[in-house]
Amino acid sequence: MNPNKKYILLAVSGETPQIITETFFKLKSTGYDIHEIHVITTVRGKSNLIQLLSDDPEKNIFLKMCSEYGWEPLTVEDRNIHVFFDQDGGFLDDIRTDCDERCAADFIFKTTKD
Q1: FRET partner for 85 with CA separation of 20 to 30 A, picked from 36, 41, 43, 104?
Q2: Edge-to-edge strands, sheet with 7-12
């Protein structure tokens, strides 16, 4: 790995954010120095993720994991949680329809392009 690079974990998550913690663990345990985590999700997904990212170190899954494995603490900032927009520009609560899927795909492309 290049020590001059900034490594960002970008994850797309639904209502259960285990994919984020599992991917973070795998990358960290194989030597990647993750500097930031960005998550693309729905309104429900963000709500569930925020519960796991409590300010209380005993409840925050990332802080607990970093502490347990001796890694530098990492937090997921609210500004790094990106919520899908629907076709009318409102936040997408869940992805249920073909239109929702298209909106989500467009949002992912736009977010990763920027």
Answers
A1: 36
A2: 7-12, 34-41, 81-83
